[in-house]
Amino acid sequence: MLPPVRAFITGCTGLRLTHEEREFMRSFNPWGLILFKRNVADADQLIQLTREFRELVDREDAPVLIDQEGGRVQRMGPPHWRKYPAAAAFSREGVTLEERASLVRDGARLIAEDLRACGINVDCLPVLDVPSPSGHDVIGDRAYGREPLTVAALGRAACEGLLSGNVLPVVKHMPGHGRAESDSHLELPVVRASRSELEIDFEPFRMLKDMPLAMSAHVVYTAIDADNPATTSPKVVREIIRDAIGYDGLVMSDDLHMKALKGSFREKTEALFAAGLDMALDCHFDPSTAREVAQASPVLVGKRAERAARALALLRANLSPFDIASAQVRLGALMS
């Protein structure tokens, strides 16, 4: 008999689950599994991998996540899947915002078709960060534009496209990574903007506060909490994410292996839950660190469980009609 579901998402090392990974999942029952290029060969392999995970945890709707944005962040690509444009490609001059939103929606729905066919039901898209001129290129062309209203409109279109294809979106990186002048994969970014200036960064998230899933930013905002990044800051989570933005969906951390976070994996995990996040994200399976994350992650109950269930309930909707061939033509014209 499996133990109760714990509030963390795990990674795996290769194209199939190893014996050690299977035993780990049986022992700790993670809420979800996240995949990367190292886990992707072709459709048949992905179907087998996602099916094996769900059989292990005995949940047909267990979340399987991937970062499939397009551009330089695309885990599934040619020759087995389409190549998708980066978000910035949708911001060409001479095209109305409504036309761009329609293209974004089509692109996201095509992505959803690819993912759903392989058993993947969560896409870590869209990026709602508003890049500043001094911001690090880790966001760069992953952003839909430099104006909050444009980012929000195109981000919503991406969410609508994914949801219409029965794939859950994850808005990221809450409450905003666009001003960060360093890459949180490598070090801890510190943003010194005033509270009023940060409203620009918060606005796209506020406008999409109805979305089911979000990912936190490993970024310090000195105007709010000079000591802790958003992921482990009770002030940022409570005062900004939950109150100022008004977000009541499930918030997962960004990857715990990123260099922005300090301390042991147990300490990092305990800190993010103490701050008020709902889910820990451990993208790189290592037996020792994975066990620390799992043991420090609470059983999924209470408000966290409600948020998780509310998100997964959206997957039970029927697919809306969609002309794949026409969407491919429109997206191909954009990429050319």
The largest beta-sheet arranges its strands as 1-2-3-6-7-9-11-12
Q: Write the element-wise H/E pattern from the N-terminal end onward.
A: EHEHEEEHEHEEHEEHEHEHHH
> Which runs of at least 5 residues are low in confidence (pLDDT < 50)?
none
Q: What's the domain count?
A: 1
CATH superfamily: Glycoside hydrolase, family 3, N-terminal domain
- Structural class assignment: alpha/beta
CATH topology (level 3) name: TIM Barrel
Sheet with the most strands, sense and barrel status: 8 strands, parallel, barrel
Keywords:
336 residues, 10 helices, two-stranded antiparallel ribbon, eight-stranded parallel beta barrel, alpha/beta, globular, TIM Barrel
In short:
With 336 residues, the protein is α/β, with parallel strands linked by helices. Helices cover 39% and strands 14% of the residues. The protein has 10 helices and 12 strands.
Would you mind describing this structure in some detail?
This protein is an alpha/beta fold. The chain has a single domain, classed as Alpha-Beta Barrel (TIM Barrel). The protein has helices spanning 19-28, 43-57, 97-117, 148-164, 195-207, 234-244, 265-275, 287-296, 302-313, 324-335; strands at 6-10, 30-35, 64-66, 68-70, 73-74, 122-123, 168-174, 190-191, 213-216, 220-221, 250-255, 279-282. The strands form three sheets. Strands 1-2-3-6-7-9-11-12 form an eight-stranded parallel β-barrel, surrounded by five helices. It has a two-stranded antiparallel ribbon with strand order 4-5. The chain has a two-stranded parallel ribbon with strand order 8-10. Strand 11 (250-255), helix 7 (265-275) and strand 12 (279-282) form a beta-alpha-beta unit. Helix 3 runs parallel beside helix 4, helix 3 (97-117) crosses helix 10 and helix 4 packs parallel to helix 5. The radius of gyration is 19 Å and the shape is globular.
